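A student in our group prepared the protein record below, which I am reviewing. Here is the record exactly as it was handed to me.
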Amino acid sequence: MNRLQQYWLNLISLSDNQIGLAGLALLSGLLSGAVITLFRLAIELPLVSWLPMTSPEAYETLPVNWRIALLLGGGVLLIALFYCVKPTKRGVGVTHVLQRMERHQGYLPRSNLILQWVAAVIAIVSGHSVGREGPAIHMGAGTASLIGQRAGLAHHRLRILAGCGVASAISASFNTPMAGVIFAMEVVLLEYSIRGFIPIILASVTGAIVSRAVFGHETAFNVPALNFHSLWEIPYILLLGLAAGLVSTIFIYGVKIFQKLINLPLWMRWGSLTLATAAISIYLPEVLGIGYDTVNATLAGEVVISTVLLLLAAKLLLAAWAAGVAFPAGIIGPTLFIGAALGGLMGQLSAWWFPEYPISVGFYAMLGMGALMGAVLRAPLAALVALLELTANPNIIMPGMLAIVIASLVVNEIFRLPSVFHVQLGGNRLYRAPDPVQQMLRNTWVVEAMQQSVVKVERKLGREAAGFVLQRDPDWLLLAEEELLVPPAALVEALTADPEAESIDLVTIPAKRQAVGRISLKANLQDALDLMQSSQLQWLAVYRDERFGHCTGVVSREDIDNYYHYRPKPADDAAKAPL
């Protein structure tokens, strides 16, 4: 590889170069969208090709014995599959993505991605009452992460690229590219930044293009014409927000209750869920599968009040149960189903109480979907943007804001509950959202605080070699094998003190030496601080590759402190890339 090729690899792989990252984001969006498209086809094609179903979600058209056989067969397959996988390798879903982002800088293993794909297909095809969006988020983030790992991205950029995969997944699942961007930054990256927006927007748009090329331009739901007739509806919208907050609270508490089963054997946890789903499906088959056909019927006002109420309760129970026992499928879809059922119920009650006043059941169903999504997932802005994109109606914004904010306040401030993802992760035991300082350090490449004026030398230097070294005017001399830093002034003093010496031993001469560890150039400042603390070191040598061959500089705890307190203005990206 010539010097020019190496330079471009440095720019794309390790530096803060936005153009290189944008190119990788486009590739991530394309491949993530393709993986999720294949995932969706793997669910839909078997159902309509091998079973007497009019659509991939029409489980109610199947005979009862077929439905039960599907559920039991899928449950047995999933249990057998996960018994063949080591417990440490079973992480799947949004919670797995959050944990890998927080503890592993966005490095997602390929094995978990494959496991998620297979397990989610089995779970959904067999009719379990779960969603496909959570698995899609894992697949999108995992695909993008693998691309970033292959390209050798620095840690702070790999996290952004994983976020690109998340945005592409949401965009491809719902055909809502703006909501994909906001969800990735609001829930996964936990920050809004200009340098993150550009690649994530590109990936989200690319994912939407892939999805539309295969499934068309329609959104995930058939949204009817929505009418907000009068400001007198605002009190009722506030009541809907309050009801959504209470239902969200019940759902999150339900997840906590079912988490008490987590210490039971896998076959008991998942087997009991499968049996409960089969029992409920005998009388209420609409609860099976993703259920978007029922959501569309609710939006159209075609589901009677009693059925809506039963579906709401059944979906609430089964979705909370699945989330609590770590079933390998998603809860975003069930959350939208519950929200639509609640909103549809409120809309039909309004028509019952005030028959002379024209209302739109679909309008309240959409508001319920947004309110549940915002409160349960703690993603209010993503929920609002999703409402806007799904309805293509700006008039939804004001009532949507009211419903989402009220529901979120009930969950967050009255009952003091975190997001359902945080609950699934066991609170602070398995996952802790970074504070603003940690967030800044994680998003800062180690090069930003690194001293590049360092020369790697052998322990013993001849006078001539020492002269050449000193002509480069370094700040430090690095003894790699001894893992020591020596100030050049000590070498000058040694040469002056003994003019006849043919060589100088940098370990034995008087000097204020510093012990130094090793860290990769891919690291960020939080990585460096963590390593310093665990190794009880004040200095780290920064090496270009994992083999620790070529040292590009050194960084100290004081350098990081100074960077944090006196953060410099952003420099030119190409200038920061060490050659």
